[in-house]
Design goal:
277 residues; single chain; 13 strands; 6-stranded antiparallel β-sheet; alpha+beta
Length: 277
């Protein structure tokens, strides 16, 4: 009887120990979940602050000029005899300019629209740049590039400022002229002349594609270049959020933690756009 009592006592002690371990595990998991949420919220706020500064720069531009920034900017590699303009689009552009060495073929390029917007302000000496200088230097990447940001591989030596979100991806700029979706597939890019008029020779990139449905994969050997994805390929991403500005004012957004702008659930916006259904 004494041995059985001792066995029961040891058994109850083990059960109690397991209960305590389970409770501790639950508390630890809850603490980790809460901590992860706090970090996520903090990161989102950091991105929102950067985008708010960008939005403030748009407001200052409007106040100084009486209108929103134009949808295009002069090509910095242009000459007096070549005055092409670059449309500032949150999209893929059909890059017809091959690398002078022949090392990189023409392809479909991710366009860093915010970098081009800032270039627009810099080229005009706009006072709106003051707001952008307030962005955390960790998110403001400025330097001299051999090629234009995620577009042409031509040698330019131009000064480029890129604004990243806290996940390391470029913050995106959507001009009202290019809001919504443009083009239907990888082989049906929108003609720039359909949107802006003029002639194809007026623009550095005369076709572009902006949607939230077709899937793409990055080309590992070509920075900023995408290829259409097969149904079973990994690392698929969308091109954009497909959103349209709810007013005649540009908006900025981040693709969020997953870096995919087409998965709008985790995107971070300055203005909530009209999104495709």
């Amino acid at each position: 009887m004494s041995e059985r009592a001792n066995i029961r006592q040891r058994g109850f002690t083990l059960i109690e120990l397991l209960v305590v371990i389970t409770i501790i595990a639950i508390l630890v998991s809850l603490t980790l979940a809460a901590g992860t949420k706090v970090v996520s919220v903090g990161r989102e706020r950091g991105t929102q602050w950067a985008m708010q500064a960008l939005d403030t720069s748009v407001g200052e531009y409007i106040q100084a000029n009486g209108a929103i920034p134009p949808p295009t900017v002069r090509d910095p590699v242009g000459t007096l005899n070549n005055t092409k303009r670059v449309a500032i689009v949150d999209a893929l552009v059909d890059d017809q300019v091959a690398d002078p060495s022949g090392a990189e073929a023409a392809g479909m390029k991710v366009f860093d629209s915010t970098a081009w917007y800032i270039h627009q302000l810099e080229s005009s000496g706009s006072s709106a740049l003051a707001a952008i200088h307030q962005i955390d230097p960790k998110l403001r990447k400025t330097g001299i590039r051999k090629g234009l940001p995620f577009s042409s591989s031509q040698q330019t030596g131009s000064r480029t400022t890129r604004i990243l979100d806290v996940w390391g991806n470029p913050i995106r700029y959507v001009h009202p002229r290019f809001g919504g979706t443009h083009g239907q597939s990888a082989t049906a890019f929108e003609n720039m002349t359909n949107v802006l008029g003029g002639n194809a020779t007026d623009y550095k990139y005369d076709t572009f594609l902006r949607d939230a449905k077709t899937r793409w994969i990055p080309k590992a050997d070509k920075v900023g270049t995408l290829a259409p994805a097969a149904a079973d390929e990994a690392n698929q991403v969308g091109i954009s959020d497909g959103g349209a500005a709810p007013s005649r004012r540009p908006y900025f957004y981040s693709a969020g933690p997953d870096g995919d702008p087409s998965t709008i659930e985790d995107n971070v916006y300055t203005i909530r756009p009209n999104l495709p259904r």
